Amino acid sequence: MGITVVGSVAFDSIETPAGKRERCLGGAATHFALAASYFTEVSVIAVVGEDFGAEEEAVFTKRGIDTRGIERATGKSFFWAGSYLDNLNEAKTHQTDLNVFASFEPKIPAAYAGTEFLFLANIDPVLQRRVREAMPNAKLVAGDTMNYWINDHRAALLETIKGLDVLVINDTETKSIAGNSNLVQAAQAVIELGPKTLIVKHGEYGATAFFSQRSFADHESSHPFRAPAMPLPEVVDPTGAGDSFAGGFFGYVASQPEMTPAVFRKAMFYGSVMGSFCVERFGTERAQNLTREKIDERFEVFRKLTHL
Ligand code: AMP
């Protein structure tokens, strides 16, 4: 059945200590879909403008990603410009042009209706909820958000995260939603807002899963679980690492017959693997050219990195 993801498909201009790229293909849904495509079938719901051509479309279709839900609108695609010159863990946003995204009304192709795994990437929480409600067959719904929605659209965001099975956000966002600067207390407070499982991304330091009694059907209580990030000699471009983590995590979960604590823990490592590939090149360059063998090889590197 695979995964459906709704989110941004964008052009990004990026500057990092390793160099600069102008208008490379990006967007949260793009990074997520490419990473997840190595594990399961993926369908995308998004809107793009007239600047999204055959070359960009081919990035998706070459990976077998279903693009029937990518609507073509008159105007330009979402554009984001950012840099990471002071801190590789935190993007400095220089420009966000919503363009066709400003009037985005997600349209869900009938062929996507049976989707069992739904990922709501970082978009307006009202739209996230609308997509969720239109896909009643989804048995696992995960989502992301960002500070703009936490600070300026809190009520709508809280309504959306109440209905999530898995919330995947970074540490700053976790603390900001909870209004608490201690990560463990903040994570507990966020879980009490509704998501069954909370995955907190720590950039170059990995990610931690916090489970609740509602995380798994058999009520097995589970301790928090941390997966490290790969120590890399050079980080070329961190853009999309979080979405690639989410794609690897969710892709692996969706490829498994059961959702157990062991599957979620392994998925955390696949998330870290996909995040580590993403940052090795600009934009989606690395994620376009992987193989499942290379992914599993790196999974083994992670095993050696962490095994006593
Ligand atoms: P990440 O580095 O994983 O947090 O995600 C970066 C991607 O998110 C980039 O490719 C951007 O195009 C996209 N992005 C940046 N700002 C926004 C926004 N306000 N809404 C949706 N997507 C965004």
**Which parts are unreliable, with pLDDT below 50 for 5 consecutive residues or more?**
none
Total of DSSP H or I helical runs spanning 4+ residues: 11
The number of domains = 1
- Ligands and ions found: adenosine monophosphate
CATH architecture: 3-Layer(aba) Sandwich
* Number of β-strand runs: 13
Write down the oligomeric state: single chain
Shape: globular
Task: Walk me through this protein's architecture.
- This protein starts with a strand and ends with a helix.
- The strands form two sheets. A nine-stranded mixed β-sheet has the order 5-4-1-8-9-10-11-12-13, sandwiched between helices.
- A hairpin with a 5-residue loop joins strand 11 and strand 12.
- The mean pLDDT is 96.
- The protein has one domain: Ribokinase (UDP-N-acetylmuramoyl-L-alanine:D-glutamate ligase).
- The protein contains eleven helices and 13 strands.
- Helices cover 36% and strands 23% of the residues.
- By secondary structure, it is of the alpha/beta class.
- It binds adenosine monophosphate (AMP).
- Adenosine monophosphate binds next to strand 2, helix 1 and helix 8.
Highlighted features:
UDP-N-acetylmuramoyl-L-alanine:D-glutamate ligase; nine-stranded mixed beta sheet; 308 residues; alpha/beta; single chain; binds adenosine monophosphate; 36% helix; four-stranded mixed beta sheet
